[in-house]
Specification:
Blueprint (H helix, E strand, L loop, with lengths): L1 H11 L11 E2 L1 H7 L2 E3 L14 E11 L4 E11 L3 E11 L8 E6 L4 E2 L6 E3 L2 E5 L5 E6 L6 E8 L4 E3 L4 E4 L8 E18 L4 E3 L2 E10 L3 H4 L2 E8 L3 E9 L8 E9 L2 E6 L2 E10 L6 E13 L5 E9 L5 E4 L6 H7 L8 E17 L2 E15 L2
Antiparallel strand pairs: 1-13, 2-12, 3-4, 3-16, 4-5, 5-6, 7-8, 8-9, 9-10, 10-11, 11-14, 13-14, 14-15, 14-16, 17-18, 17-26, 18-19, 19-20, 21-22, 22-23, 23-25, 24-25, 25-26
Amino acid sequence: MNWLKKTLADVAGTQEPEYGPSAIQAVTKQAELQPYTELSVDHLKWLAMESTCVETQVFYFMTDEGVTCMAQIIYSNVMGVRTTCQFNSKIFDHDGPGKHQWCSEPLQNHGFDERKTGFFADNVDVSLSEDGTTYTIKAAVNDDNICNITVKRTAPGFAAGTNGTSFYGTDPQHPWGSMRHAFWPMATVSGTMQTKKKTYNVNGRAVYIMALQGMKPHHAAASWNFVNLQTPTYSAVMMEFTTPPSYGKTVVNVGGIAKEGQLLYAGCSNTVKHLAVVKDPVSEWPEPKALLCNWTGKTKDGQPFEAEMMGDLGERADRVDVLAHVPTIIKNLIGGVVGTKPIIFQYVSSDQMTLKVKESGNETSEKGKLFCEATFIC
């Protein structure tokens, strides 16, 4: 009966029945025994599933010139019937909303290298070095943003628990869906993003995330929070999602703190709270205005670790209507569901947020550059 309900929801695109929280085996359970796993080259391979999935590589850049940018590859599959790929890029203009350079292009003739760590398509190549420490991103699919970028990891990467994956399904031995994240919390970036009006030097800091939603996106999560804070010494990242009622509104939070050459902390015992919200008149979602984030756990050698970020988010950089920007195939993944209106609120701030870190009995505070997203789906 569960299989029948699940199949009907997949085919019709409708919301799933309420299976309850026992129907998700969250990565937080793995993290209770093993907080995180350091990434190897094998962890960075594309899975390219032949069933319903959305798999992404996304790179976030905070440049020395004060500009925030991103680049992303999306691999999408609907029920093994059709696969499409997309290259997205965005350059945030700090002068205010509506002035960002956004490009989203469908890709033709996609494929993967022999190791499955590299992706290519017509006029796009994203490759990982043999030692697994450096990505090169070359994209010329849109004259509005030609990318020639190098990202080099400067601290160990991580996935929560043993494999970074939460599994969905009423039978743990035979899950019907999954959610996976793997992080490079600290990296350097160099190169250019060239528009018709200007060439941006993207030299600075980078964060890289590889993610997989092995099911329909609105079945996997109802809302998301993403935090990326870069201070002179530290990089703090956090990714949190809350499942729909189908899976008991379960909260799964993965985060880490790194500094040059070191992963100080990684795990799932983190929290994020919207301290103040206003109703967005366009989407009617509760737009956050202030944020509190806590990273709490132990270092690799078992010492207590704490970090906190709290403050006003300021004016949002953008409000993204997801269905207006994604490939048709992803729209089909979520189409027809009552109450589904994916919106992303994005925030970019320079030296407004303070990160407080308590490590080995010592406390330090540093201001940093913030990129933050709050996503509401259903």
